[in-house]
Amino acid sequence: MKHNVGGVDKVLRIVVGLVLIGIAVAGIVPWWVGVIGLVPLGTALMGWCPLYPLLGLNTCPTKKE
Q: Where in the chain are the domains?
């Protein structure tokens, strides 16, 4: 898998994932919202989003050769 999640995108995904998990643990929203929070957190940690190739997106900077 080629990385397609860039730096700013990765940070935003981590923040959103942790916030969703945190508010679910605090009991503000149902538990399944915390499960949904695992998706952006996981894609940020892997550096690859399976939806991006389908949409033709790539936020990862290209390497200059």
A: 7-50
